[in-house]
């Protein structure tokens, strides 16, 4: 009788460990494969126009991805995806040169997101920008 209780106890323990192991593998896989929640995917981002100095770039998250806002004399305010079109690295703003540099493979973009050199096949994706009463709205 005692052996039967011990076997039952060990069976319950092994079943619990197996269930916890399956959950530990399945939950991250489920989160990875599930779609981005709607609020992260379609929101608008706002900034005060005075918060962005001329010639500077402000990086932020937009629709679950990196984006950048630039304010300059010639073009005004421009919002772009900060994801390089080559392999998806995040570009860096080179203020002294007035251009973006992809640190992965040295792709270079103008401040408007056009390809200057390197392997990127397309320009950076532009984002819709509207300005009203000193507030910049992206999206």
TrEMBL record:
Its cofactor is [2Fe-2S] cluster. It holds the Pfam family Rieske. It comes from the Bacteria. Keywords: 2Fe-2S, Disulfide bond, Iron, Iron-sulfur, Membrane, Metal-binding, Transmembrane, Transmembrane helix. Gene3D superfamilies: Rieske [2Fe-2S] iron-sulphur domain. Residues 44-138 form the Rieske domain. One of its GO terms (cellular component) is membrane. One of its GO terms (molecular function) is 2 iron, 2 sulfur cluster binding. PROSITE patterns: RIESKE (PS51296). The keyword Transmembrane helix applies. The chain crosses the membrane at residues 9-30. InterPro entries: Rieske_2Fe-2S, Rieske_2Fe-2S_sf, Rieske_Fe-S_prot, Rieske_Fe-S_prot_C. This is Rieske (2Fe-2S) protein. It comes from Geoanaerobacter pelophilus.
